[in-house]
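Quick one: structure for this chain?
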Amino acid sequence: MQCSEFRQEAGADPQHLSADALAHRAQCAACAAYLQQMLQLDALLKRAMEVPVPLDITAPARLPAPRIAARWMALAASVTVALVVGFGAWLAAPRETLAADIVAHVAGEAEIMVATDQPADAEKLAKSLHRAGVRLKSGEQKVSVVRNCLFHGRLVPHLVVQTGAGPVTVMVLANEKVSSARSFDEQGYRGTILPSGPGAIAIVAGSDAAVREASATFASAVEWTTAQ
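Got it. Here's what it folds into:
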């Protein structure tokens, strides 16, 4: 199970996960944290549903009606604030877990990220990039592997680029938006997600030096041909 599949299942019903999802949670710290957020949000929603609503605040009671109403409104307000905070964390979670999804995908295909002098087929590379709405500017880009992989429900170019500091995975993500460059260090992988055209470019490697080199050469050579 991939991280994106786990989050979809956890978001739908965090209280009842499948065996595959439970196994994935045990192996992925990022998804385990995401599940905890979903469980907390579930608890907040349950609390909101259980807030007693007075049927008739004007009925005789030990406290005057205005004070009963005030207490109920204060309780409702506190639950509302908690829900706002909870939803804020939930909305922020997908942005924070994009890197985790990228790393999980790269780790699943780690066997192709190897140093080699064998270049990828130029025609296959051009076609893969064209489908994503990009092309490479003239220059020597040492692409050794070209794949079209399913990521977040869409086929994206998954490339392996050779640098002086080692092999680097590059993913062209036309449908992922980031406002600024974001670096990450997860599960032994270093990387960055760069805003590019209408989408983003993810660069993942085993060292910061390889990430920096690919960011300075390959990423700057990408030219978007469609607005997507």
